[in-house]
Design brief:
103 residues; 3 helices
């Protein structure tokens, strides 16, 4: 003779998402722990606090000045190329307008 089947206090189908959420939280915790121990997090914290770790010194100042000059030169070259591109686009547009029938 069999008695009534025992009732489980929860639905077993709800256990799978619960295990997934716990696993996700563990993985997220490990990732955050790794990030907060990294040099990037330390640099970010120093930046937020207003501290600057590096300063430009003698040899570096010359290098920075050279890089700034090269950057200015490249910006001028890019501006010149943009002007040439605009001119070429205008010429091509004029050529297309002339070659269209009925124009």
């Amino acid at each position: 003779m069999q008695g009534p089947t025992p009732m489980i206090p929860f639905d077993p189908n709800q256990l799978i998402p619960l295990i997934g959420m716990i696993g996700g939280m563990v993985v997220t915790g490990i990732v955050f722990w790794g990030f907060f121990r990294s040099d990037l997090a330390a640099a970010l914290a120093d930046r937020i606090r207003g501290r600057k770790k590096s300063s430009v010194e003698g040899g570096d100042a010359e290098h920075v000045l050279e890089l700034e000059q090269r950057m200015t030169e490249m910006q001028g070259q890019i501006a010149e190329m943009a002007e040439r591109l605009d001119f070429t686009e205008r010429l091509l547009a004029q050529k297309r307008e002339r070659s269209l029938p009925g124009a």
